[in-house]
Amino acid sequence: MPLSINTEAPNFLANSTDGMIHFHNWIGDNWCVLFSHPKDFTPVCTTELGVMARMKPEFDRRGVKLIGLSIDPVEDHARWSDDIQTATGQSPNYPLIGDTDLKIAKLYDMLPADAGDTAEGRTAMDNATARTLFVIGPDKKIKLTMSYPMTTGRDFNEVLRAIDSLQLTARQQLATPANWKQGDAVVIVPAVSDEEARKRYPDGWKAPVPYLRLVEMPV
After folding, report:
1. How crowded is the C-beta side of 84, counted as CA atoms within 13 Å?
2. Domain boundaries of the chain, sorted by first residue
3. How far is CA 155 from the centre of its chain?
4. Three-state SS for 192?
5. What CATH superfamily classification does 172-215 receive?
6. Res. 2: pLDDT tops 80
7. Contact 205, 213 (CB under 8 A)
8. Are the CB atoms for 71 and 102 separated by under 8 Å?
9. What are phi and psi of 155, to 5 degrees?
10. What is the spatial distance between Cα 213 and Cα 187, in angstroms, rounded to a whole number?
11. How far apart are the two ends of the chain, measured CA to CA in Å?
12. How far apart are CA 132 and CA 146, in angstroms?
């Protein structure tokens, strides 16, 4: 079955550039971003891995651990890291999983079950659908997924923005409107009655329509 939001992120044991990783144990009580790549030494992915390394302090500040996956051996990842450093000025400062038997890609529904059991001989196009990003919560459930084609680099600022929303709304009965960013007004969810909302937000809210109640973002 395809993975969906609020389903448990499949657990796995895999080799990585940081050694063996038991995924759920590795996440611990943190949030996690798992982002996948179809093959090492591909141009768009090279830029993405460098950008994620540069932005890692922003994810750290939010309590989010980063982990990449590419369908090639870990030994190739080490050589690719040198290219990433040359191309972007940064080398990965987070683990990069080797998925040489395609098990994790299949486990996360990024490759079909009949894709085989080895990365050997497969091209980037063969693995093109392994271009998904998962945001996983401390409860090990999938909170968000984003899938991209190989020709479109990911916008990791949008990932940070989405994580800000996910973390805010996990703590409080709030939602965030379109194009929301930190500091903007937020939405009181329908599950909170007007009576309860008045207790929580004594300064009131704006309601262009009755079911859209906008209130200042809590500090």
Report:
1. 25
2. 13-153, 172-215
3. 11
4. coil
5. Antioxidant, Horf6; Chain A, domain2 (3.30.1020.10)
6. no
7. yes
8. yes
9. -100, 100
10. 6
11. 40
12. 6
The pTM (predicted TM-score) of the whole model is 0.95
Q: In CATH, what number does 13-153 get?
A: 3.40.30.10
The owner of tokens 């079911």 is 211
Contacts of 171 (CB under 8 A, 6+ apart): none
Whole-number pLDDT of residue 122? 96
Token pair belonging to 205: 């809210």
Catalytic positions, please? 45, 139
**What pLDDT is attached to residue 219?**
79
Determine the residue type at 71: I
pLDDT band at 105 (very low <50, low <70, confident <90, very high): very high
Write the pLDDT tens digit of every residue in 125-181: 999 999 999 999 999 999 999 999 999 999 999 999 999 999 999 999 999 999 999
Cβ atoms of 150 and 36 within 8 Å: the answer is no
Question: Does the pLDDT value for residue 1 go beyond 70?
Answer: no
**Per residue in 52-99, pLDDT tens?**
999 999 999 999 999 999 999 999 999 999 999 999 999 999 999 999
The residue to which tokens 């059991």 are assigned: 117
Question: For residues 92 and 81, is the Cβ–Cβ distance under 8 A?
Answer: yes
Distance CA 193, CA 206 (A): 15
